[in-house]
Design brief:
The structure holds two protein chains of two kinds.
Chain A: E1 2-11, H1 29-48, E2 52-57, E3 64-66, E4 75-77, E5 86-95, H2 98-109, E6 123-127
Antiparallel strand pairs in A: 1-5, 1-6, 2-5, 3-4
Chain B: H1 3-21, H2 26-43, H3 52-75, H4 93-103, H5 110-121, H6 126-132, H7 137-153, H8 162-175, H9 183-197, H10 201-215, H11 240-255, H12 261-273, H13 283-296, H14 300-314, H15 316-324, H16 333-343, H17 347-360, H18 364-382
Helix pairs in contact in B: 1-2, 1-3, 1-4, 2-3, 4-5, 5-7, 5-8, 6-7, 8-9, 9-10, 10-11, 10-12, 11-12, 12-13, 13-14, 14-15, 15-16, 16-17, 17-18
The chains are: A alpha+beta, B mainly alpha.
């Protein structure tokens, strides 16, 4: 088994499909409900299959912080309205193969958007680095 | 939960309280109680003794003395002097309160106080508390043991303030239900214990507030887990028994004539609970209570909520003027403005602000709800 992080972006990544450009607050209310229900369905399916690790949504605005030197408070910057890349949330899964991880990402990406059409959002799939196996030979 | 487990959950913290009251330090007292509970599981079988509490106190105290003596022998230290049990009957009630006040001591950070209260006073396992907070069990174990060390290091033997106890209990209530354990129910149980032993009207005020909110809980969530706001809730699903109890407790508290923040909040909750719809709510009284609350505890959050009530009494434009006085950084600021603009008939501005509010939401349920409100107005605006 290997763990993968599936990242959903508000912005960034390859060009979006046209249906992904309409903000959710401009969908029909039922479309919003259907989309959320689908996301819950994906998580439930993964739980049933024993592949689910974690899922979290992130607030769109955050702050950049760095060390400010001894005795000084942290230095902060932002929040930035127009960052190139913005992560909306993630799902962590534990699956048998990279193929299965891609399958799950595609499943997430098939979430319905306006008109019930699959949104086809890009999902970034990042393998977790593993710990060194006891037996390497 | 089996009867035995339920009994142990109830009795464990009271036994711990007795040991602490008798002078045992927090950490070793807890070890002793755990050992006693384990022995109870092994030896009580299906039938607990006639006086399980006394049995547990005796056993835990013996375990504690054993541990202290073996430790003392190792360290060649004489400790027997202060280990004699205090005379008098053993009830556990006062001791539980002492524990509660220690666990909520202002010297502890809030998250430590919450964890320690659930562990030591609520009798929950570390695993249950960890799950309820969605953190690893080892993290929660560490948080609890650091809290105990703080108590030991600071030599805390005197209870902290009632104010901090109430705040911790209210926080626990608001953590609600995420794991197998219902923290809201747990907070109510602990507040009931405190209220039974205290004549402070604010304790009753907090209990009333929790009960009145709890009465509405099942109506707060829709069939697929979505948030249902107060004005759209199916009020026939409110728990009328809890409402009646909350109102009664509140009235008794108010009659003691020492008003406080929790009583005022409970009074507002009672006015909502008393109305068959938003339209039939006595908003004038709600507004008066918000004025009272602002006097008792001035805060921008209260000022924002007051603006909603003012919007109902004097109209949405008056509400918007009041919101303009509240700093924009206050949570739900955009959501309240959106609501007032919608009531004022400015749907375009309301739609825009609901979308802004959804991006500022602190929870996924609130974000989804605000997104739906924006979507609903967007659909209405597009209709010819």
């Amino acid at each position: 088994m290997a763990k993968y992080l599936l990242l959903k972006h508000y912005r960034g990544g390859p060009p979006r499909r046209p249906q992904g450009d309409i903000p959710m607050d401009q969908w029909a209310p039922q479309e919003v409900t259907d989309h959320i229900a689908f996301m819950d369905h994906v998580a439930d399916t993964l739980r049933e299959r024993g592949e689910f690790v974690d899922a979290q949504a992130l607030s769109p605005s955050g702050t950049f912080v760095r060390y400010g030197g001894a005795g000084s408070p942290p230095v902060t910057d932002g929040p930035f309205v127009e960052t190139k890349d913005l992560i909306a949330g993630w799902m962590a899964i534990d699956v048998d193969s990279v193929e299965r991880a891609h399958e799950v990402a595609a499943f997430l990406s098939s979430a319905p958007g306006p008109g019930g059409v699959p949104l086809e959002e890009w999902i970034e799939v990042r393998p977790f680095l593993t710990s060194l196996p006891e037996v390497t030979g | 939960m089996t009867d035995l487990e339920a009994l142990c959950k109830d009795l464990g913290p009271r036994v711990l309280g007795v040991l602490v009251r008798r002078g045992a330090d927090f950490a070793s007292a807890e070890d002793a109680v755990q050992e006693a509970l384990l022995e109870a599981h092994l030896s009580w079988d299906a039938q607990p003794p006639d006086a399980p509490f006394a049995w547990l106190v005796t056993t835990a105290w013996r375990k504690h003395l054993d541990a202290v003596r073996s430790g003392a022998a190792r360290r060649r230290r004489e400790v027997a002097d202060h280990l004699e049990p205090a005379p008098g009957p053993v009830t556990g009630a006062d001791e539980t309160l002492l524990l509660l006040f220690l666990a909520c001591h202002p010297a502890l950070s809030t998250s430590s106080a919450v964890a320690l209260t659930l562990r030591a006073v609520g009798g929950l396992t570390t695993r249950q508390i960890a799950r309820a907070h969605l953190v690893p069990e080892a993290t929660m174990a560490q948080r609890i043991s650091r809290a105990k060390r703080t108590i030991a290091r600071e030599g805390l033997v005197e209870p902290g303030s009632l104010d901090s106890v109430l705040r911790v209990l209210y926080l626990i209530y608001n953590e609600g239900h995420t794991g197998e354990v219902d923290l809201a129910e747990e907070a109510i149980r602990l507040t009931r214990q405190l209220a039974a032993a205290s004549s402070e009207p604010e304790v009753s005020g907090l209990l009333a507030l929790m009960l009145l909110h709890h009465a509405r809980r099942s109506a707060r969530w829709g069939p697929s887990g979505e948030l249902v706001p107060l004005d759209e809730q199916d009020r026939s699903r409110w728990d009328t028994a809890l409402v009646a109890e909350g109102v009664q407790i509140l009235q008794d508290a108010l009659a003691r004539d020492r008003l406080g923040e929790f009583q005022a909040q409970a009074a507002i909750a009672a006015l909502h609970a008393d109305a068959r719809s938003t339209a039939e709510t006595d908003w004038t009284q709600v507004l008066e209570w918000y004025d009272e609350l602002l006097r008792l505890h001035p805060s921008p959050v209260v000022a924002l909520n007051r603006a909603v009530a003012l919007g109902e009494v004097d109209g949405p434009l008056a509400g918007l003027r009041a919101v303009a006085e509240v700093p924009e950084s206050v949570p739900r600021h955009a959501a309240v403005r959106a609501h007032l603009h919608e009531r004022a008939g400015d749907l375009g501005e309301a739609q825009r602000l609901y979308a802004v509010a959804s991006r500022a939401a602190a929870s996924a349920a609130e974000r989804d709800h605000l997104t739906r409100l924006a979507a609903r107005l967007h659909a209405r605006l597009r209709q010819p």
